Amino acid sequence: MSCTEKAKKTTEKTITKIPTNKHQATSNRMKRINSIDITRGLVMVIMALDHVRDFMHTTSMTQNPTNLQTTTTLLFMTRWITHLCAPTFVFLSGVSAFLSFRRTKNISESRVFLLKRGFWLIILELTVINFALWYDVHFRLLLMEVISVIGLSFIVLSFLLKLPSRIIGIAGIVLIFSHDLLQGIPVPANPVINFLTSVFFRPALTQITQGLSFYTSYPLIPWLGIMMTGFACGEIFDFPQEKRGRIFLKLGLAILSIFIVIRSINVYGDPSAWKQQKSTLFTFLSFINTTKYPISLLFTLLFLGIMFLILFFSEKVKNRFTEILSIYGKVPLFYFIIHLFIIHSLMFLMLRFQGFAGKDLLFGAFNNGRPKTGGGADLFLIYLIWLSVVVLLYPVCKWYGKYKSEHSYNKILRYL
């Protein structure tokens, strides 16, 4: 072989090693963790069930599905299982923040990203997501829920990055175990104090103007503890898959054991004590019926324990079903926004078929357009609609996930 041919062959080999686009340049350092996508995808699917039920079930306007005096077992469990969603979202958001920080290894860059991400999520919820919830062009109610509290938690976390992750985790656990003590503190009848306590400690309605109300259903402090704990647990994902699977199993069983002990004592950890009911089954439902608004210690322990068991199985199981779940889990915010618009629009389609006219629709604070009486679907149909929505979203999420992956150099896509 001549010197010229050798040089040409060497050049061709070198060229093949050079990334042909920015995505290839970054893909090697941005490897996804399947168990996170699978777990997040599962709770995304479950979350859609709750929103279909909330928008379209016959009794969703008049009945509390976890009220053991009026509910059925199926209705109770339909609502109860969806409690898994928010703690998992917040915890895994903390994990993702840690993984992003570890990848950059730059405090300033990570802080700026978390700040931007945090403010973006708050703005997004108070505009696009609130509109998706109420379809009220006048925005007479601003609702602070899980997306906003993730945003606020990102902002707080951005100022804690200099601390060791274990210190952040310990502080998070302290918040989880102690924030119930704050709920008994009386709040002075002052609009400003009422607003601040609603943002930080307990749900409350603040009347800002005659035509504008602000309601916080996800106050910061309880959820911040979950975010900080998730950030510290991000270190677990540095371990080999087999080892972290064992850790998830042990954590899940340990946390659920702590839940059972504290719940059995029936003194601290939840404002609603469990009680003997009309049957053994309903007594069990009372035992697991913990408080979400604001989240109690026992609520947090119960659903984080279940989440760790799901993470354990997500590390062990790999099949077509988990692959499908991971599609949803790779684009959680995109899925969240799109699914709300689809479900809310389907509600209007249902009302139209049921004979309601435009004059029957109610909009405004806590009114999403649905009439106060009449309308709605039975629980069996709710499940069919839910499955249809999830199936409909699959190709859309798959397309967006692929597009986002192929354009990972686009910084704007990191925020959706």
Q: What are the main properties of this structure?
A:
single chain; 416 residues; mainly alpha; three-stranded mixed sheet; two-stranded antiparallel ribbon; 64% helix
Could you describe the 3D structure shown?
The chain has 416 residues and is mainly alpha-helical. The chain has one domain (33-411). Helices cover 64% and strands 5% of the residues. The chain is built from 16 helices and five strands. The protein has helices spanning 3-17, 22-27, 34-56, 73-80, 85-104, 107-134, 146-158, 165-178, 191-200, 220-233, 241-265, 280-288, 297-316, 320-329, 332-353, 379-406; strands spanning 141-144, 204-209, 212-216, 362-364, 367-369. It has a three-stranded mixed β-sheet. A two-stranded antiparallel sheet has the order 4-5. Strand 2 (204-209) and strand 3 form a beta hairpin. Helix 3 crosses helix 14 and helix 6 runs antiparallel to helix 7 (146-158). The longest helix has 28 residues, at 107-134. The N and C termini lie far apart (53 Å). 37% of the residues are buried. Residues 1-29 have low confidence and may be disordered.
The stretches of 5 or more residues where confidence is low (pLDDT under 50) are 1-29
Structural class: mainly alpha
Which sequence of SSEs, written as H and E, runs from N to C? HHHHHHEHHHEEHHHHHHEEH
Strand order of the largest sheet: 1-3-2
Radius of gyration: 23 Å
Helices, by number, come to: 16
Distance between the termini: 53 Å
Tally of structural domains: 1
Please give the largest β-sheet.
3 strands, mixed
Query: How many individual β-strands?
Result: 5
Shape: globular
Share of helix, binned: 55-70%
Range of strand content: 5-15%
The mean pLDDT is: 90
